[in-house]
Each structure stands twice: as C-alpha cells, then as structure tokens.
Amino acid sequence: MARRYDPGRRTRIIDAALRVIAADGIAGLSHRTVAAEADVPLGSTTYHFGSLDELLVAALRRCNENFVRELRGSEALAGSVGSAGLAEELTRLLDRWFAGERGAIELEYELYLAALRRPVLRPVAAEWTEEAVELLSRHTDPETARALVALMDGVCLQVLLAGGTFDAAYTREMLARIMDGGA
Fold it and tell me: What's the CA gap between 157 and 151, in Å, rounded?
C-alpha cells in the first residue's frame, strides 16, 4: 500500500496534543489519545514523535512561539520606548493575553511548569525566557529584562493559581519600579 503524502500531519498531531492537554491535562496525553484527536493512525504519532516527551517538547515550543510572536509583533516594542512606555506596552500585552481564552494561558503554563518534573522540557522552557529577555534587552539592560520577565511570569502564575483577575495598574506600576531600580 502506498503512503499517503500528508505534509501537515506533524503539525496536526501537535495541535491535537495541545487540545488533549487542554481538555485532560498532561496526564491524559498518550499517543492513542492524540492519534484519535488528530484523526490519524496511531503509527503516525509514534513516527513523528518517538516518545511523549518529544511530543511535549514540540507542544511547549509551539506555546512559546505564540507569546514571543506577540512580543515581536508589538509596534511599541519594535520602536524606541522609555521606561513608562515599556511598562505600558508589557501591561497591555498581558492584559490582552488575559482578556482572551483563559484555557490557552492555563495550557501554556501547564506545559511550562511540567519542566519541573520533566527535565527534557527545561531547555524549551528556558528558550521562552531567553527570547523574551533578548527582545526586552533592546530597551533595557539584560538583567532588568530578566527581572521584567520574572515579574510577568509571577503575575501570570498568581492570577492563574489564585483564580483572580489581572490587575493592570498594579502590574504597570511594578514593571515601572523594576525599570526605575525599585524607586
């Protein structure tokens, strides 16, 4: 039997894995559940991803790309912004992120935090941090950029774990304080 050419299959499998994780968490992820969700033969998932860890790496990398794309797509961050402008733009991006589908944010952080127990995910989790730091370092020094990323991560985790709402004014003020050296 001839193989069917399907250049988008790998991408569909990753998308299906993200839907499975969003619905059932990482514990619900298996080659079988992903194959069913992607409507592909089970052998396709194991062909493209020899292990679930490989599939999780691809899924986390996809999530990383989504937020970094938002940072890169920001017209304000593409230009020259001062401390207040940078704090305002980062707050606007987070506010827009939280205004969207909360399940998407929860999915991204579930994958991000899975690196605590799955060492194979740690370099991929670090990629997001490094890329965000690199983008923000165009507007501030690398140490301050790293602190800004850490604050944004902390704010997101607090909102997600406490079930609260995103406080834009507080976030803007804390981002500005970091950039102003804590003053």
Answer: 10
What is the structure's pLDDT at 155?
94
Are 121 and 114 spatial neighbours (Cβ–Cβ below 8 Å)?
yes
Q: How far is 108 from 69, CA to CA, in rounded Å?
A: 14
Question: In this structure, what is the dihedral angle of CA atoms 128, 134, 138, 144, given to the nearest 10 degrees?
Answer: 80
* pLDDT tens by residue, 15-59: 999 999 999 999 999 999 999 999 999 999 999 999 999 999 999
**How far apart, in whole angstroms, are the C-alpha atoms of residue 95 and residue 124?**
25
d(CA 153, CA 155): 6
pTM: 0.83
**Exposure string over 8-30, b if 16+ CB within 10 A, otherwise e:** ebbebbbbbbbebbbeeebeebb
